[in-house]
Design brief:
Blueprint lengths: L18 H32 L1 H11 L2 H28 L6 H28 L1
Helix pairs in contact: 1-2, 1-3, 3-4
Length: 127
């Protein structure tokens, strides 16, 4: 059988996007963001241990608009990954597996992520 006769595997252009599918992909992406954020946290902690000059370098990187955007993204990824992880744990226990429940819990995850991120950043900016 030649390679041309073999059927193609379905891919993302064939599937219709669903909220649960997008949230699953975002869960994996947020895990990658959190792993990269751990490198930044390590940089911050080692600079803190190395002294004021090293810490000033890290502080300069954080205290600009791009650094603020990175920290905002890290906060967003943290809350999303946490909320969606709880959702997956509930699924593992057998709760919320129906189609409508999965969709509704996805909306709850997105709402929680947005509200929690905004509350944290408003607290940072106001206090």
């Amino acid at each position: 059988m030649s390679e041309l006769d073999r059927p193609l595997s379905p891919h993302l252009q064939i599937y219709r996007w669903y909220l649960t599918m997008a949230l699953s992909i975002l869960h994996r992406a947020s895990g990658l963001v959190l792993a990269a954020g751990l490198l930044l946290l390590t940089w911050w902690l080692t600079a803190l241990a190395r002294g004021p000059e090293a810490f000033a370098t890290v502080r300069a990187a954080i205290d600009n608009p791009l650094g603020g955007l990175v920290l905002f993204g890290f906060t967003l990824a943290t809350f999303y990954h946490m909320a969606n992880g709880v959702r997956h744990l509930l699924w593992d226990l057998g709760y919320g597996l129906e189609k409508e429940e999965a969709y509704r819990s996805g909306l709850v995850v997105l709402a929680f992520t947005g509200v929690a991120t905004l509350v944290v950043w408003l607290a940072i900016l106001l206090f």
